[in-house]
Amino acid sequence: MKPTVGRDMQVCTSVGSALRDNGFAILSTQQVMQICGSGATDPAAGAAFLSSWNDLPTDEFLADGGRYRFRRHASLKLSQSGWLDEPYRPHWQPKAYNKLHGGVFRTFAEVRPETTKNATYRGLVEGFGEVFAAAAPRAAEPWFVETHQFRIDARQGEGRPTPEGAHRDGVDYVALIMLGRRDIEGAVTTVYDNNGALLSEFMLHEPFTAMLLDDQRVVHATTPFRATGPAPERDTLVVTYRAGGFLQP
Q: Is the pTM of this model over 0.85?
């Protein structure tokens, strides 16, 4: 990845080291902003980035029949030579990783072009690429990246961030960035080792806090939540990084 103006590479390296030691890391808003670099200091870019969550179509693939999840999806390659947007490709996971929705190609609405060009979006995706490159025992060149904009809504009942339960994503690393939660109670995230032992239990609450995962070493889940007010929503950006190619059959 090309260095971004304002990115604190010392923070990227130290977070990568912690991730390598523990298999997961929980980041404060300050750490995420230091990793994001110049994208974090552009108020107009930040406002446009957050407002794009107001235009997410319904996820039509929920196997439980729910209408509580809204999302957009994109793929790209990230390397030292730069960022390469990929033509749209459906999202695919095997049932071994996603027992509820695995085994089928899921075609979601694309992340809008104005979002993929947004400085905050790019700062997050590129910054966490630097963190994961620091954590990886081998050089990852390039990262095959998928981004998912999620809004979970509890207006019509329970909101379920992970209806598939505790799972892996089938990649090398995962970044989950909290962007906002309103009028809800619940949504506690848990991280387990591959033997099922609980490693951590926490709630992402503040905007631009994040959870980073070594997807080879841990599994994760987030509990359902319920409404406590008129606009019960939870907005996140999930970004996955995989060496060697996109996940496919």
A: yes
